[in-house]
Amino acid sequence: MAPRGAAAGPARGDRALERGIEALAGRFLSRFRERVPSPRTVGREAEFTLVRPDGRAGDSALLWEPLLEATGGRPVHDQPAPDGSRLLVGVETYRWFCLAEVGRGTVEVGVGPAPSLAGLARDLQAALGAILPVVHRTGQRLLGYGIQPRTPPHPGLMTPKRRYLAFLEVVGRSWLRFGLTASDQVHVDAARDELVPMMNAINAASGAIVALTANSSVYGGRAGRFASGREGLMRRMVPEPFRHGAVPRPFVDAADYVRWTLGFRCLALPDGRGGFRGPRATYGEVLRREGPSFEDWTFHEHYLWPSGRPRSRLGTLEIRPACQQPEGSFAAAAFEVGLAEAWREVTELLRDLLGPGWWRAMLAYRARAVRDGVRAREPVPGLLGKLLDVAEAALRGRGFGEERELEELRERLGRRETPADRARRAAWAGGSGAVVRLTDLAATATG
Predict the structure, then answer these.
(1) What is the DSSP string of 317-328?
(2) Which of 83, 197, 238, 249 is the residue whose CA sits 20 to 30 A from 256?
(3) Distance CA 402, CA 399 (A)
């Protein structure tokens, strides 16, 4: 049974609707390969908080022209407006891209795909080697930190991409919370037959990822109640439980996943004329009225944010609950890749340790981890250490030495301290400016 408030999707029994669900699920699965490389390839989308030296939010728009000049990269624009104008939102090179996120004060640096985390690290180092000098020339700082430390959400902070403006109109001011956060997302290749159980394993274990990587405890200019402020605040962005973060239950198959997505409000859909329309309905209601459109469904599904979510455009599973890190930059990525590689072992471990109520136990643990980080009470003593062991064995099997990246997380577990705890202490001693100094990428290891 799903927890109360879970989006269950439409009830079974409507044959036309069921045919639409099966059609969408078939198209969805066809985007994933029958077999993936061994070892599977990985990618990373690393979001970084951009601030002024005093901790106020920066402006990514100041970076693009000088970054284009410095790198010779290709400009990236938002979709054209009806008058033909185009907003410059980033730079792309053959090794990496750097884009504006929902907030002007967040930039996303993407690298990969690559066979190993070491390959991603080389490309990320090259990207930051080009980006950081431009950031400093514009009088700003780039932080290994998961949320704006000082600036509250407000309309001026939002990057004016056309779809974001449409979402602001539908969701209201709570949409602006997305403009504060900086997550650290990893993509892993996933084959069709393993996609759903891998997604289940990651969503079940997401509390462990949060516990060991929480780093967004200072926001709005002071220490907040959540160790992972980005997870704690985002789950309340819309009045729909489970739209962001936790997932109420494991999925049976791809059709079950599609059915679950239909229970959520459709924030907007492309109108076919370069703009957006607001259906003001769940996608299940849209599907009943308009029939299956894979393009419309994938647009809707892209604006659901479970911790482990499939990306059919890329053929990957995206793992997204980690905050950006101030040091040990690839520790979170290594843990997530290891858990994904070992999805069978992760599932068996949780079921064996926690019994029939394993999913509910991990949901409750996730909520505690968002609040308390690594100090949260584990469902059974030693669970985090066991999950680290499982991930380490899987990484060792990949043969790249990636398991060494887990040493940072083992140290955090041994100290029962995460970057969130250090950020809080810095804020108590010196305010949000001290958090900037603590997490400034110019002064911390990034690869």
Answers:
(1) EEE--PBP-SS-
(2) 238
(3) 8
Convert the pLDDT of each residue in 196-253 to its tens digit.
999 999 999 999 999 999 999 999 999 999 999 999 999 878 889 999 999 999 999 9
| pTM (two decimals) | 0.95
For residue 321, the Cα-to-chain-centroid distance in whole angstroms is 6
User: Cβ(317)–Cβ(36) under 8 Å?
Assistant: no
pLDDT digits (tens, 9 = 90+) for 346-402: 999 999 999 999 999 999 999 999 999 999 999 999 999 999 999 999 999 999 999
Residues 44, 120: contact at Cβ < 8 Å?
A: yes
Q: Which residues on neighbouring strands pair with residue 49, listed in sequence order? A: 106, 143
Biggest alpha carbon–alpha carbon distance for the chain: 62
Place of tokens 């202490």: 425
Q: Which of 339, 304, 308 lies closest to 200, judged by CA?
A: 308
Q: Is 279 helix (H, G, I), strand (E, B) or coil?
A: coil
DSSP, res 80: P
Neighbours of 315 (CB within 10 A): 20
String of b and e for 106-120 (b: at least 16 CB within 10 Å)? bbbbbbbbbbbbebb
> Residue range 304-315: average pLDDT?
97
pLDDT at 4 over 50: no
| pLDDT above 90: residue 7 | no
| pLDDT value of residue 385 | 98
CA triple 236-237-242, angle to 5 deg: 60
Q: Which own/partner contact pairs does 69-76 have at CB distance under 8 Å and 24+ positions apart?
A: 70/130, 70/133, 70/134, 71/130
Q: Where are the beta strands (DSSP E) in 17-163?
A: 42-51, 74-77, 88-92, 96-100, 106-114, 141-143
Amino acid at the residue 65: E
* SS3 call for 100: strand
